[in-house]
Amino acid sequence: MSSKTFYTTTPIYYVNDSPHIGHAYTTVLADVLARYHRAQGDNTFFLTGTDEHGQKVQKAAEARGIAPLDHCNDTVVRFQQLWKKLNITNDDFIRTTEERHKKIVSAILQDLYDRDLIYKGAYTGYYCVPCERYFTEKDLVDGCCPDCKRKVDTVQEPNYFFRMSRYQEWLIDYIQTHPDFIQPAFRANETLGFLRKPLNDLCISRAKSRMSWGIELPFDSDFVCYVWFDALINYISAIGYGTDNKKFEQYWTSCQHLIGKDILTTHSVYWPCMLKAMGLDMPKSIFAHGWWLTGTVKMSKSLGNVVNPMDMVDKYGVDAFRYFLMAGMTLGNDASFTEEEFITRYNCDLANDLGNLVNRVVKLIIRNFDGKYPRPAAIMEQGDQELIAVALQAVDSVRVAVENMKLDTGLDCVMNVVRSANRYMEVNKPWELVKAGQTERLATVLYTAGEVLRIVSGLLYPVMPEKMAELRYVLGMSEADQRGVSFEQVRSIGVLEPGTPLHDTAGLFPRIQVPENKPCQAEQVKIKKNAEPKVKAKKEESPVPEGVITITDFQKVQLRVARVLTAERIENADKLLAMTIDLGNGDVRPLVAGIALFYEPESLIGKNITVVANLQPVTIRKRESRGMLLAVRTGDKLTLLMPDASCNPGDTIG
Ligand code: MSP
Fold first, then answer.
1. Which tops the pLDDT comparison, 540 or 490?
2. Ligand 1: which atom is nearest the Cα of residue 290?
3. What's the pLDDT score for residue 544?
């Protein structure tokens, strides 16, 4: 076992929600990371759970005429069942209604109150009676509730506040001096942008007369604790803070929080300030991933495009679903999930590339060597050694990819090994070696391919545990090795013992029939390359003159309003500004633009600009840029196109 410790967390999910792809994604991601770390011998702890207090739960329970806790007990099962179905190996599942959690929240509240870090003050703001929610001025839409659009009441009432403002300078400094604390880097910039405005103290109480389903404040029984203040504490209450110091100290500082981008501020501002006030160290990192979209459209109940993970697993199997989630999202960015994209990737990567390799190798060994691994020649040819080198290189690449949260790149490396192995088979043509009776060479080729499959199965095991355990069974590995994958063994050579029997397989990844005969991308390329146009293309009815685009061409460009959140100069690049822009709906992105000679960075913050939102991302001076801003050039002057403040981030131009 290595001496490293790895502790990872998912957000605790609102127990009332129906589990959707967003919940499934973060939890599978945490599971895959935990499995990789376990395979590396790291001391690993993986926590997930449910957030069970608050108004929505109280209301849902009232509607059912039952106690809130009974409602939670009924609904929590949906998450627990889904995690079972998705093969999630969490070490603990915390519910915020459990005594072990409530006790710690209460103790923390009391301690902060005793040290005057929580005080009673007057809350001034707005309250929507039908929605039973508090709002600030900037939340309101035309002076009305942003949800139900009705008039809101101005309220001034006592409440308890956490002295969060006290930590603003410290937090800015911490983020600046710990560049890996908030990831990806543009989310750290987004947080710093938020911290440019004065940080207010945080209202951490709710009057029981309005909402009573929460943890009672230990120093005032008329109030319960604000649900976020209660929820964030799960990350430490679950690992023994205040009850099991040894366990807590073992795990806490190695903690890597995984969250979605919409809950960044609570994690990157509230939580560090709370920890600082408690006198605790910071977690190692907070990583905010992007959202799954349908194409480019946000998933929402009203559009009916929310992906239900249970349905996907029932239809295509758990491992195919896990593979798509991990291969399909570049961590940090948004990604698209459609069934068509899912099938295309499955057929290309799993059915074609990996599935075919397994079939070829296993069947040839079974047919020609009595179902047992042949003994390879003592001296391998260069091609054999090269293939082994590619596979071993992938072991390192995957380790680095996991450390840098680039799982899609890691999986790409493994798929490259598979494709190299398929090419190796094409070049060495073992089926012709059979015909030519070159048994010794045949043995070396098939043994080498078998070893590469063993390495691949180990590298893919954390993502597809069921299928890879099956593959390792097919490869004749011992029962202990089928599931107990260790990377130390994965990176050793000569693990498969000649003479060990393999098991036949009917196919690990049966091809999914593509609707409307749509071939996968790789096949499309093949078809395009080979197909000779038989009939001359019909002449266009009204040809478009050169230099003119059609309305369809124009509609491909997404022109949108964006608000500048942060802007700064880039060292040694006089012309460039690095910005973080908000495109509405939680779509916050990095953007690099050549405008530093014309605009002071500070003058842009809070301003609207116009952006081509669907331009392919590029990296400029090691910084990612996702979009291009529009500006007018007049002689030596450059003027940005800046929609006025009445326009909102995300508004469409055109
Ligand atoms: N209870 C809070 C978290 C408290 S943590 C101390 C919460 N719960 S939630 O149930 O709403 O969490 C949803 C999680 O799913 C968030 O991380 C959110 O970003 C994520 N997603 C919701 N929709 C999503 C997609 N379409 N795609 C990816 N993840 C998205 O917030």
1. 490
2. 28
3. 65
**250 C-alpha vs ligand 1 centroid, how far in Å?**
28
Ligand 1 interacting residues, C-beta cut-off 6 A? 11-14, 17, 21-23, 25-26, 51, 231-232, 259-260, 262-263, 291-292, 299
pLDDT for 148:
84
The pLDDT-based confidence of 540 (bands split at 50, 70, 90) is: very low
The ranges assigned to domains in the chain are 5-289, 336-490, 551-653
As assigned by CATH, the class of the 5-289 domain is alpha beta
**Confidence band for 550, pLDDT divided at 50, 70 and 90:** low
- pLDDT tens string 401-429: 999 999 999 999 999 999 999 999 999 99
**Å from CA of 161 to ligand 1 middle:** 26
CATH superfamily of 551-653: Nucleic acid-binding proteins (2.40.50.140)
Distance, in Å, from the CA atom of 277 to the CA atom of 157, rounded to the nearest integer, reads 25
Looking at residue 518, its pLDDT comes to 53
**What does the DSSP assignment read for 90-144?**
-SEEEETTSHHHHHHHHHHHHHHHHTTSEEEEEEEEEEETTTTEEE-GGG-BTTB
Average pLDDT in the chain: 90
> Do 5-289 and 551-653 show the same overall fold?
no
Closest ligand 1 atom, residue 23 Cα: 15
So what's the pLDDT on residue 541? 40
pLDDT band, residue 537 (cuts 50/70/90): very low
Q: How much distance in Å is there from the Cα of 48 to the middle of ligand 1?
A: 12
SS3 string, 12-64, reads CEECCCCCCHHHHHHHHHHHHHHHHHHHCCCEEEEEEEEECCCHHHHHHHHHH
Name the amino acid, one letter, at 345.
R
Rounded to whole angstroms, the Cα distance separating 487 from 219 reads 52
Q: What is the spatial distance between Cα 611 and Cα 464, in angstroms, rounded to a whole number?
A: 39
Residue that the structure tokens 């069970």 belong to: 52
pTM above 0.70, yes or no: yes
Q: Which CATH architecture has domain 336-490?
A: Orthogonal Bundle (1.10)
Specify whether the CB–CB gap between 100 and 39 falls below 8 A: no
Compute the distance from residue 259 Cα to the ligand 1 centre, in Å. 7
Best substitution site from 51, 331, 588 to test ligand 1's pocket, by max atoms within 8 Å of Cβ?
51
**Neighbouring residues of 206: CB distance < 8 A, sequence distance ≥ 6:** 159, 214, 223, 224, 225, 226
